Amino acid sequence: MIELAVFDMAGTTVDDHGIVYVALQDAVEETGAPVATADLQEWMGADKVSAITALMALGGQEATQQRVAAAFVRFREILVERYTATPPVALPGVAAAIATLRERGIKVALTTGFDDDVAYPLLESLGWAVGADAGSTVDAVVTTSDVSAGRPAPYMIHRAMEKTGVINVRKVLAAGDTVVDVQAGRNAGGISVGVLTGKLSRDDLAAHSHDYILTGVVEVPELAETQRPA
Asked: Is the pLDDT of residue 230 over 80?
């Protein structure tokens, strides 16, 4: 039985209506760099500074530190504007699935390609509390503010282990809706799960090393690894 489930936020546990990717594309294209759909998909789930840097370069723009920083500011401005107009909501059944896992003694952490300034207000807008007590929604949150590199590096998953006191990577399940989520789960050494609540298809995710492809996080409590031993 696993001891920790680590879930991505946007597209995995939270329906942000695809706004994060619209904001990312708009911010990069404002620099003069066209963004191809395939390139945007490749950088889904990565930390946004790295994504902006890569997409600017792919679009033929010089990704200097100053220009990337300015584009990141615009990304956050666009994101706030669009989230205000169309607030994110929890994906159906996710809160109940998380509660079920925690009732079984499995800790739950969220990871995200957002930094603290974006992630925590988003969670607050959902009414999700963070902490080990029974009244909280999840045990821990890890953002790009907590690590030296985002996905596909395994650092956010390992940081979630630190925050929740879990030491055995084989007792960790990591789930997300993007290729880098699946890669991070594999790189972390745990159970790697792709979910189909984002923009990618089953074939897109299954092309990468994984343990499960599920319809969504709502199916995680059905896995054998999340069941109490008889």
From this structure: no
> Alpha helices of 107-207 — where are they, by DSSP H?
116-126, 155-164, 179-188, 202-206
Q: How far apart are CA 183 and CA 154, in angstroms?
A: 8
- Give every CB contact of residue 39 below 8 A, 6+ residues apart in sequence: 54, 55, 58
- In sequence order, the β-bridge partners of residue 14 are 10, 90
Residue closest to 91 by CA, chosen among 194, 11, 8, 19: 11
DSSP string, 32-88: T----HHHHHHTTTS-HHHHHHHHHHHTT----HHHHHHHHHHHHHHHHHHHHHS--
pLDDT tens for each residue of 6-64: 999 999 999 988 888 899 999 999 999 999 998 998 888 788 999 999 999 999 999 99
Give all strands of the β-sheet with 191-195 in edge-to-edge order: 140-142, 107-111, 4-8, 172-176, 191-195, 212-214
The whole-angstrom distance between residue 199's C-alpha and the CA centroid of its chain comes to 13
- How far apart CA 182 and CA 191 sit, in angstroms, is 9
Q: What's the average model confidence in pLDDT over 62-82?
A: 94
Q: What is the pTM of this model?
A: 0.86
Phi, psi for 51 (deg, rounded to 5): -65, -45
Provide the pLDDT for residue 18.
Answer: 85
